[in-house]
Amino acid sequence: MSVVEKRSVTIRGHRTSYSLEKPFYDDLVAIAAARTLTLAALVAEVDETRPRDTNLSSALRLHVLAWAKRGVSS
Question: Highest taxon of the source (predicted)?
Fold first, then answer.
């Protein structure tokens, strides 16, 4: 089991944080690179589109899962 790491990011001018296991974080970085986005831009995009009753960490995990299910290689 991977240790959960807390990370901070600035989204639309305010600081927030999310906690992800290393494999999810690594895939998130790979997705951002494949889409030629900064990690902060990808996190902001996920934040903008997530349901308000879903926390950011969960939304990021679901984004990684959806990307993997689509079969997009990064």
Answer: Bacteria
